[in-house]
């Protein structure tokens, strides 16, 4: 058994029965609070539900779903359940499509959030002894100030480095003896790549990564490259930001504990809205039980996963959600086959010859959809190859192997193109991997 750490041991190891009582109490409060908002109240009336109809936990299924649209039509202040003067912070999504989704916080909301991030960090083993570098921007993105608050609460020496500037980030890590970082997985890969180029050794201890889907093949590259244990965490701006769920040392690589004293997780069939059982895959629906500033009740996340009970770490009342492999919105339909980009990532990044960047291009050959995966091959692969013919052979073999693995997993012919290191353009911020040229 690995060493386990708890921030709120009583809550984290609560029995399931105690948790259900707490959730029911908080759910009633949350629905009463939400009903103070005119828009939400109208939604309830249209569904013929009153807040008093919530008598047991399963009554949550009587409540209407919320979707991104509820946030969009109420932009910017329409979903508030408190006076504007009670708000102390807002964060927002990048809003690449339309208006950004805004998350408002009261003083209590910020406190809850800070403790949830401190819980995430403690859960993976971060302590006040750690020197903690946050590699994301400290602006509107929740991953900046969110982790600033949580790590500072734990008493870490906190470095608010911000995004980009990879070489300088690595220098900081070495100079100040950084032991733990927070970031997005694609930047984790970038750190490994640049450290390799510069021949730097960066022995971290822990990396908390999130805000993008990432496969365990990517995790392995980051863990080897930065000599650390890399953990996944999950959250949404609509709910609170990060702090919704996190891997523990026992569930690492498989699933994340949903902090069930604050959130109720449900899985539904995305087509019918019907609730599914433990172990069945469907769309994740989340309710924030404690948020004061605005409601997020039965919010449809568009993320596909399933729920599991029990964990060797003892956080049995905090259900585990399987690592998210796909989003409904990311699903590509190619020649009638559903393809999830994370499946492709898993296959290509498993190969040690493949570097740290890839992209997926969708294009048309006549009337037919084609999919091409471009990946970079590490320079070191060519080091011992002498002739042009040897290089061509080696590349052909690798290409065939990857194409075959992709065909076996996805049951679709996928074109593979291998490129030299650095040939695929890098994106700023969250990695853009899909290029639809159809
Ligand atoms: Zn656990």
Write a concise keyword list for the protein shown above.
GMP Synthetase, Chain A, domain 3; 4-stranded antiparallel β-sheet; binds zinc ion; alpha/beta; 21 strands; 2 domains; single chain; 438 residues; 11 helices; globular; Rossmann fold; 9-stranded mixed β-sheet
Describe the overall structure.
- With 438 residues, the chain is α/β, with parallel strands linked by helices.
- The protein has 2 domains: 1-325, Rossmann fold (3-Layer(aba) Sandwich), CATH 3.40.50; 331-436, ANL, C-terminal domain (GMP Synthetase, Chain A, domain 3, 2-Layer Sandwich), CATH 3.30.300.30.
- Helix content is 31%, strand content 25%.
- It contains 11 helices and 21 strands.
- The strands form 5 sheets. The protein has a 9-stranded mixed sheet with strand order 4-3-5-6-7-8-9-14-13, sandwiched between helices. Strands 10-11-12-15 form a 4-stranded antiparallel sheet, with no helix packed on it. The protein has a 4-stranded mixed sheet with strand order 20-19-18-21.
- A hairpin with a 2-residue loop joins strand 18 and strand 19.
- The longest helix is centred in the last third of the chain and has 23 residues, at 388-410.
- The radius of gyration is 23 Å and the shape is globular.
- The chain starts with 8 loop residues before the first helix and ends with a strand.
- 43% of the residues are buried.
- Residues 248, 250-251, 257, 311, 313, 315 line the site of zinc ion.
- Zinc ion (ZN) binds at residues 248, 250-251, 257, 311, 313, 315.
């Amino acid at each position: 058994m690995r060493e386990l750490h708890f921030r709120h041991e009583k809550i984290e190891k609560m029995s399931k029965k105690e948790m259900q009582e707490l959730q029911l109490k908080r759910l009633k409060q949350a629905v009463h609070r939400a009903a103070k908002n005119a828009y939400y109240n109208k939604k309830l009336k249209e569904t013929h539900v009153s807040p008093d109809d919530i008598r047991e936990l399963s009554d949550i299924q009587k409540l209407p779903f919320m979707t991104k649209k509820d946030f969009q039509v109420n932009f910017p202040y329409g979903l508030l359940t408190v006076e504007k003067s009670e708000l102390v912070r807002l964060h927002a999504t990048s809003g690449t499509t339309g208006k950004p989704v805004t998350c408002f916080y009261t003083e209590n909301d910020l406190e809850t959030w800070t403790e949830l991030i401190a819980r995430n960090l403690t859960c993976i083993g971060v302590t006040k002894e750690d020197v903690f570098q946050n590699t994301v921007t400290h602006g509107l993105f929740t991953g900046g100030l969110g982790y600033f608050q949580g790590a500072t609460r734990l008493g870490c020496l906190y470095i608010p480095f911000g995004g980009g500037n990879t070489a300088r980030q690595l220098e900081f890590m070495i100079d100040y003896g950084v032991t733990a970082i927070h970031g997005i997985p694609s930047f984790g890969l970038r750190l490994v790549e640049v450290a390799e180029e510069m021949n730097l050794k960066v022995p971290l201890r822990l990396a908390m990564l999130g805000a993008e889907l990432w496969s365990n093949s990517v995790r392995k590259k980051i863990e080897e490259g930065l000599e650390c244990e890399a953990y996944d965490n999950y959250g949404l701006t609509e709910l609170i930001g990060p702090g919704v769920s996190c891997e523990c040392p026992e569930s690492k690589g498989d699933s994340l504990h949903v902090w069930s004293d604050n959130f109720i997780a449900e899985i539904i069939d995305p087509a019918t809205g019907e609730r599914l059982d433990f172990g069945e895959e469907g769309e994740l629906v989340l309710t924030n039980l404690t948020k004061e500033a605005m409601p997020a009740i039965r919010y449809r996340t568009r993320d596909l996963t399933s729920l599991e009970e029990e964990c060797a770490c003892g956080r049995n009342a905090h259900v585990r959600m399987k690592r998210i492999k796909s989003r409904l919105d990311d699903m590509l339909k190619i020649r009638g086959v559903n393809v999830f980009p994370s499946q492709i990532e898993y296959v290509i990044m498993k190969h040690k010859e493949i570097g740290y960047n890839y992209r997926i291009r969708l294009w048309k050959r006549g009337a037919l959809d084609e999919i091409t995966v471009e990946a970079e091959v590490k320079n070191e692969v060519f080091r011992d190859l002498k002739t042009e013919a040897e290089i061509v052979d080696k590349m052909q073999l690798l290409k065939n192997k990857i194409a075959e693995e992709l065909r076996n997993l996805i049951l679709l012919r996928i074109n593979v193109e291998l490129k030299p290191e650095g040939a695929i353009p890098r994106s700023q911020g969250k990695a853009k991997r899909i290029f639809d040229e159809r």
